[in-house]
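PROTEIN DATA CARD
Card holder: SCO5918 family protein
Chain length: 95
Origin: Streptodolium elevatio
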Amino acid sequence: MRCVIAGFSFDLVKNEVEAAMRDIKPEPVEGDSVTIGRRVYPVKQVGEVITRQDRRDFSAKEVVRALTRIGFTCHPAPAANPAPTQFDPSSPLGY
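Structure generated from the sequence above:
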């Protein structure tokens, strides 16, 4: 399927993306991610491999859109953990 990433057109096919990522170890996920086979990759890592471009040249949104169109399941960035509150006994609410 023809997809545009960073202003360039790519013909992406699901099994070709799977083959390209087969021997690549997933980096830790901090933002949007995609499941390829039994592994979860950051979408920017996958975009860099399939486009052979620097990951600063495209957005995660572009790669998510392309990967979703060819049948992959993408996941939003994990929610940030809120900072723990400290207990303050002098506060009327206790924190």
